[in-house]
Design a protein that fits this description.
This protein is mainly α and 437 residues long. It is built from 20 helices and no strands. The protein is globular and about 50 Å long. 80% of the residues lie in helices and 0% in strands. Helix 8 packs antiparallel against helix 16, helix 12 packs antiparallel against helix 18 and helix 13 packs across helix 14.
Amino acid sequence: MPRIGELVAPRRMGRDFRWLLASSWTSNVGDGVALAAAPLLIASMTSSPILVAAGAILQFLPWLVFGLHAGAIADRFDRRRLVMVANAARAVVLLALCAFLITGVANIWIVLASAFLYGTAEVFVDTAGSTLLPMLLKPADLGLGNARLQAGFLVANQFAGPPLGAFLFAAGHAWPFLLEAVCVSLAVVLISRIARTPVPPRSSTDSGSAITGSETEAAGSAPGGSKVHTDIAEGLRWLWRNPPVRMLVLIILLFNVTWAAPWGVLVLYATEHLHMGAVGYGMLTTASAAGGLLATVSFGWLERHVSFAAMMRVCLSLEVVMHLAFALTTQGWIALLIMFVFGFYAFIWGTISTTVRQRLVPHELQGRVSSVNSVGVFGGMVIGQALGGVIAQAWGLTAPWWFAFAGAALTLLFVWRPISQIVSARPVLDEVQANEP
């Protein structure tokens, strides 16, 4: 393998990991294009902060409706095939949207409906996809694996995609979504090359959850012996009885409420308050990705020299400062610097929180616990963006940043001490290994 290939994806991590990495990076190119193009499309059809925020809300609302079911389904079936089918559905939605745009019949309601359908398919992609890494890598390699996936997300989704999306949108409203459809379709082909994705073992946590034979068919259950809602309840019970993972999910929920309030109207904040224009708005995300790339280079050193607890506290403290800085600035170049810092600590936080959760959760529950975590992420975003739209409509485009600053500061005080309990918890995977003969 070429030297750079060994650096990005060491041979010990296996060929299947490289296919997963390639699929994730390719899909993220398309998502990054839409990250700038979708808000610009909505903003070109309406100037209402509420409708602009609704575009993001309807893309993430499916997590509240289907998120837990997606987790239970991911713990029942071949997770690789679930990702393939759901990505194919995303491509169909994108092609339909392109057809509406090209024919000139698209309106704000068609775009919002497309956002909801696309978000529904994405629920199953992200839930099943998040469980693949622990199935392909040893626990010791999860940190590196997550860092590589996050690096691809930063380069493709945050760094390269948004400026390209803004450029393509200026050339024609349909072009960025057509490119996204191509990328998502290619991701299906790449992930199909993964060979080793066994169906996860059924959990034995609740012996009373199993049903057999004709009962399975009559109940409409998939192979594995229990109804979907029973599996969901099992995952929720495990989460409730595991304080470190439960607190981690709560932290993510609360901070996403405050984070999403101003992010839902960021396109209006950038174009109308900072007067940065469409390309300048795309550059905000690019600045964030540049900070994340620096974090990618620094993460190995930080992991060796700084505790996870200290890094988590620093990241959440910088979140509070970031909101305050955005509330005060009126200069686009200062906003770009703030976004650079945001990208740095957001990458560190995302890598640490994902790695900690994956190490603490058994393989057979990865889908369900991951889905609860994602429901917290996107549920917080839906709540936050709804609040942000209303706040901006009533008090102006900087008001959501002040709300986020106050909310994040109070949340930080609440979670400061429990962070130590989260990172000091013994990984479930280690306990299982310790009991093996």
